[in-house]
Amino acid sequence: MMNEFETVLRSQIDGARRTLDAARRAGHDYEVHLHAARIGDLLDMAAKHGIDTGDWVDPALLDAATLGN
Questions:
Q1: How far apart are CA 1 and CA 33, in angstroms?
Q2: CB burial class (10 A; 0-12, 13-18, 19+) of residue 32?
Q3: What gap in Å lies between CA 66 and CA 43, rounded to an integer?
Q4: Which residues contact 5 (CB under 8 A, 6 or more apart)?
């Protein structure tokens, strides 16, 4: 069972993933990069608190969201 902190983190990651997808569909590369960076920051925060996020985000999603791709 997830605690409240983990639930909020997962919700924020899910929201950022939705906005990343919308930015990608709109062709807004810089926004895609920003949302991917936000997801990365949230995943880092989870890791610092010992939360396993291995199945939360496909790593390919973040790899594909770097600027210059």
A1: 32
A2: buried
A3: 16
A4: 49, 51
Q: How many domains does the chain have?
A: 1
Residue 32 belongs to some domain of the structure: yes
pTM of the model: 0.86
Query: Tens of pLDDT along 5-30?
Result: 999 999 999 999 999 999 999 999 99
Calpha distance 4→68 (Å, rounded): 37
- Report CA Rg, the chain: 12
Collapse the DSSP code of 66 into the 3-class scheme (helix H, G, I; strand E, B; otherwise coil) and give the result. coil
Residue 12: give the domain boundaries. Answer: 4-63
Q: How far is CA 29 from the centre of its chain?
A: 15
